[in-house]
Amino acid sequence: MSILKLVSRLGVYGCTLVFSGAIFAQAATFTEPAKYFGGTAIQFDVGYQPYSIKGSDLRLNYGSLQLPDQRYQGSSIPYFVGLSHTIALGSQATIAAQIEVNPVNRQYVLSVLPGYAFTPNIQGYSKVAFVHAQVSVDVVNNQNKTASTTGLTAGVGAKYLLVSNWYGFVEANYVKMNSFSLQTNLNGLTVTGQADYSGYNIMAGIGYKF
Fold it and tell me: What is the pLDDT of residue 83?
């Protein structure tokens, strides 16, 4: 075999190995997409939240005279700053812990987010969270009452990895707060009762993964 033929064959073998290695690396990327979502991240999101507050067991001056139940509906623009950490549980499954804070109404959300990475860029996830918040109640005669209460949130979301560790995401959540006591005034008379808060929100945001 001539030297030229030997060099030619070695060149073909080398190109084949390089090409095969590239295909293998790309296949590994698509068979283990969960690792691209792992790590610590910070994020900001804003959304729209219609809600309903039901006032029940409403009584005048702490007495036996009971008023009809009242229902107030409204909407708000919630926003949060969040910090999370995600780990891969396998080639596609992930789990994350997250804390979100709204400094205006002193709302804190502690979440667990099981996820599934469909590709190295696209992840779907569910959300189960404990909520602590200040809630403003407007039940009787436009009188406001702010109360501290706790509740739960459940929802689903999707995340898309952009360039340079940035990502965008959208979420849909249902919020249900525990019942809490309210006290307001109606024509100089004290009105007391119980309030129930529930609602849902659609959120969109952007984050950075370290």
Answer: 98
Single pTM value for the model: 0.75
Q: Give 58's contacts (C-beta < 8 A, 6+ positions apart).
A: 66, 67, 68, 69, 70, 139, 140, 191, 192, 193
Q: What is the SS3 string spanning 163-210?
A: CCCEEEEEEEEEEEECCEEEEEEECCEEEEEEEEEEEEEEEEEEEEEC
Q: Percent helix, strand, coil in the chain (nearest 5)?
A: 15, 65, 20
> Which CATH class, in words, describes the domain spanning 34-209?
mainly beta
Q: Where are the domains of the chain?
A: 1-31, 34-209
What pLDDT, on a 0 to 100 scale, did the predictor assign at position 161? 96
Tokens encoding 58 = 């409403």
Query: What H or E segment, with its residue span, contains residue 85?
Result: strand 79-88
